[in-house]
Amino acid sequence: MSAAPFADPLTERLAAFVRGIGIEVRASALPEKTVLPGLDIRHGVVVVDETRMTHPGDILHEAGHLAVADLGERNAPTLSPTPADEMTSIAWSYAALCHLALDPAVVFHDNGYKGGASSIIENFTAGRYFGVPLLQFYGMAVEPSRAAETGVEPYPHMLRWLR
User: Fold this and answer.
1) Which end of the chain is more exposed for a tag (fewer CB within 10 A), N or C?
2) Is the overall model pTM greater than 0.70, yes or no?
3) Pick from 66, 73, 21, 16: which is nearest to 46 by CA?
4) Which residues pair with 39 in a beta bridge?
5) In this structure, what DSSP letter does residue 130 have?
6) Residue 2 phi, psi (nearest 5)
């Protein structure tokens, strides 16, 4: 596996962001079938097969799983996210998109989220968030309804990127 730059500028930008927050991203061949084409999480590393990956934004979603995972589980051989973990990873991914000033469709594309990507975009851009209560519980963000009383910037601003 290698940490060399990726050929696609968006892929490299997303990988650089993820690396910058402390999650390793490596290029490697993934000839076997994976949940997301050309991507896998192995021992706390986002592994990217750029030749098989169909949506670079999926890097953020996979990184979100690692970011919200308990530190004791983050480096396990594989992750087994719960539905709550999935929702929290989606919220984390949206915050990352906002931070990077990218269109939500980069992560929430038509081929993902069981046909619900447009609904996720519609709800998050309207401020109807899910997954944020767990980000708040983990000390990673503050729900908009609580931001004024705590004196910090509300989600999608992140206080920290890793749990």
Assistant:
1) N
2) yes
3) 66
4) 36, 48
5) S
6) -140, 150
Integer Cα distance of 31 and 117 in angstroms: 27
CA dist., res. 107 & res. 135, Å (int): 19
Structure tokens at 16: 């650089």
CB 113 within 8 Å of CB 57:
no
Tokens representing 79 are 């992750």
User: Which pLDDT tens digits describe the chain residue by residue (163 residues)?
Assistant: 555 589 999 999 999 999 999 999 999 999 999 999 999 999 999 999 999 999 999 999 999 999 999 988 999 998 989 999 999 999 999 999 999 999 999 999 988 898 899 999 999 999 999 999 999 999 999 999 999 898 999 999 999 999 9
Token couple for 142? 């503050």
Sign, CA dihedral 38-43-46-48, equals: negative
